[in-house]
Amino acid sequence: MAALTPAPIAGDASSAPTRRERPRAWRVAVLGLAALYFLVPLAASFWFTVDDPQGFSLDAYGQIFSAPGFASSLLLSLGLAVATIAVVLLLTLPAMLAVRLGAPRLRPVLEVVCTLPLVVPPITFVAGIGTVLRFGPEYLATTPFYRTIIALQNPDFPVVLVLAYVVLALPYVHRSLDAGLRAIDVRTLVEAARNCGASWPHVVFRVIVPNLRSALAGASFLTLALVLGEFTVARLLSFQPFPVWIVYISGSQAQVSVAVSLFSLLLTWLVLLVVSVAGRKRS
């Protein structure tokens, strides 16, 4: 009797490579276009920094750290970023936990409130802040709040920029923390910890926060990137953090300005890489 040959089964592994080739080709094409979109401007910027009438030169990169105002503006932006991260996390995380545990119906309201900064244009936002800072000292001159509003505008560390950056970072921090809270069973963790006698600070810092490390790291990185790249608010309020300094120095040292921009972009990428690697190791 002749051996029976099994009929080909639909979805057999032999036909899988032919079906997978097209998605791979499309994937390569999309990634290639995205790479060109991002890398061509970077390559052009790098060529502008090294192009010299006498040939290839890296003098622009050697002048970065010796440029006047580089260290002070960068340290100011990093200090503002650290303060902004601390304030926005201390405001957002407890509020989201309270809503998720005690008032779930208010979650849409909290989401709308945290998303509002995306709707209000930054120029309108900074116009309101400027009006308050301009007329505030006049109306508060005879009150104890006069020194407070003056301290908010201290050029050495403008607290008003921290408050403005906290508002601008709310949508990104809320999205990152919301994704982290959706990935864990917060109510079960809290009830288990409370049944074991843990206090609320212990529950938050020893139970909830360790499970939100990736979300907290993502929120912190987004806030850092926002502070290092925000120009409108700081410029219109007449402060000079790192982004404003880059634009200021471009008028006299164009190559150094572009080199500093590439340096800050590389620094941001390195921070993102560290955050990604750390998140993968924890997971």
Number of domains: 1
Structural class: mainly alpha
CATH topology: MetI-like fold
Which consecutive residue ranges, at least 5 long each, have pLDDT under 50?
A: 13-18
Strand content: under 5%
CATH superfamily: MetI-like
What's the count of strands?
A: 2
* Averaged pLDDT: 83
Distance between the termini: 57 Å
Note the overall shape.
Answer: globular
What is the helix tally?
A: 13
Major β-sheet strand ordering: 1-2
Task: Please give the largest β-sheet.
Answer: 2 strands, antiparallel
User: How are helices and strands ordered from N to C?
Assistant: HEEHHHHHHHHHHHH
Cα radius of gyration in angstroms: 26 Å
Organism: Microtetraspora fusca
Main location: membrane
Membrane topology: Multi-pass membrane protein
Family: Belongs to the binding-protein-dependent transport system permease family.
Written description of the protein model:
The protein has a single domain, classed as MetI-like fold (Orthogonal Bundle). It contains 13 helices and two strands. A two-stranded antiparallel ribbon has the order 1-2. The protein has helices spanning 16-50, 59-62, 70-102, 107-119, 122-139, 145-151, 159-182, 186-195, 200-211, 213-229, 232-236, 242-250, 254-282; strands at 51-52, 55-56. It is an all-alpha fold. A hairpin with a 2-residue loop joins strand 1 (51-52) and strand 2 (55-56). Helix 12 runs antiparallel to helix 13. It is globular. Keywords: Cell inner membrane, Cell membrane, Membrane, Transmembrane, Transmembrane helix, Transport. Belongs to the binding-protein-dependent transport system permease family.
